[in-house]
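Please fill in the sequence for the structure shown.

STRUCTURE ENCODING:
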C-alpha cells in the first residue's frame, strides 16, 4: 500500500469512528461521504431536532 492510500484509509477510519458517536439530542445522523476517486472526504450531520431540520458540514478534506 502506497503512502497516499494509507493516508486515505486513515482519514476514512477517523471519520467513520467520529460518525459512530451518537448525538445526545434529536434524531441526527452522521454521514461520511467519500468521492469516487477517494480524494475528497466529507462528514455531514443531518436529521431533526424537534421540528427543526439540522444539516451541518463538520469537515471537508481533499488529499
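FILLED IN BY: designer on duty
SEQUENCE:
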Amino acid at each position: 500500500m502506497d503512502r497516499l492510500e494509507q493516508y486515505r484509509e486513515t482519514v476514512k477510519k477517523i471519520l467513520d469512528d467520529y460518525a459512530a458517536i451518537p448525538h445526545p439530542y434529536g434524531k441526527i445522523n452522521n454521514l461520511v461521504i467519500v468521492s469516487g476517486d477517494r480524494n475528497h472526504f466529507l462528514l455531514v450531520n443531518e436529521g431533526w431536532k424537534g421540528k427543526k431540520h439540522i444539516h451541518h458540514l463538520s469537515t471537508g478534506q481533499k488529499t
